[in-house]
Amino acid sequence: MTPERISARLADHPTVRKVLARKTEKPGVIDADWLRQVCLDAGADDVAFASVDNPDLAGEREHVDAALPGTKSFISLVVKMNRDNVRSTARSVANQEFHRSGEIMNEAAHRVTRALEEAGYRAINPSMSFPMEMDKFPGRIWVVAHKPVAVAAGLGVMGIHRNVIHPKFGNFILLGTILVAAPVSSYGEPLDYSPCLECKLCVAACPVGAIKKNGDFDFVACSVHNYREFMGGFTDWAQTIADSADADDFRSRVSDSENASMWQSLSFKANYKAAYCLAVCPAGEDVIEPYLEDRKGFMDLVLKPLQEKKETLYVLPNSEAKAHAERRYPHKQVKVVDSGIRGR
């Protein structure tokens, strides 16, 4: 910035005089080693970088450029979760782990963004999960897709359960992405192997059969059950209230525990009903040893309690999920609901 380009009136402002008096250099390419240390110091457990020009991320460019015009790079962050919390049949414990780890991720991303801003770079840290751009629902509501960015940066590979598996931490991770309007001196490369063991424990654990043995994935089945107290499930619950003739009619449709659970999600943070695919996954260097030592013992300890748990499974009418749940889990209540999404 030069005084010649500033009007005389503005140049006489005290703030302008102070800025013009100090010597500054425009920030250039971000040093990858410096940036990595900033991210680790901020609380991330692992980090890697990807270019916005990466062809594998072409679908993200329009969206991230709208959020931060001039985005040049992605900073992909990993935060570990405590495994036994995620594995617990007490799903309040698992959900607290998801939410607490998410707070750590958002705090780490905020600190990194602050460090970048102080170094002269433009950057934003979209939320790890919610809040999202709900005015676009039921279309794409996320600012940036964390999973493909992490894969492109070399932080893991997508398993058949559609979760990223980190080579060391397994799938017991949460992902975050920072957008920065500057290039980084070096970018990561995708892993040359998949940490996924193809053990199919996630197939066996999913109570609504969303994960198929052949690798197919039924997103709707997963969403209707696991995300029962998010978006569409909340809409269905509200519709049930509206459709009920009176309080007795409503109580005949929705149990006290279901109402209490919805209240808890609305009052604190939305809770997942399963995420069992994450709980049982044995992949990752830090995770795999008990599975290798005693597979049956591992399944008895981790898989069976989730399969045997008495709970309500939410499914759409006449769906494969309904047929699977009724056939595979006769001891679990199967409840037919609406997706809460118009035209589904």
Automatic annotation (TrEMBL):
What SUPFAM superfamilies does the database record attribute to this sequence? alpha-helical ferredoxin
Tell me the InterPro entries matching this sequence: 4Fe4S_Fe-S-bd (IPR017896), 4Fe4S_Fe_S_CS (IPR017900)
Which of UniProt's keywords are assigned here?
A: Iron, Iron-sulfur, Metal-binding
UniProt keyword Cell membrane, yes or no? no
- Pfam families xref list: Fer4
**What are this entry's molecular-function GO terms?**
iron-sulfur cluster binding; metal ion binding
| Residue ranges of every copy of the 4Fe-4S ferredoxin-type domain listed in the record | 187-216
**PANTHER family (UniProt xref):** IRON-SULFUR CLUSTER-BINDING PROTEIN, IRON-SULFUR CLUSTER-BINDING PROTEIN-RELATED
Q: What is this protein called?
A: 4Fe-4S binding protein
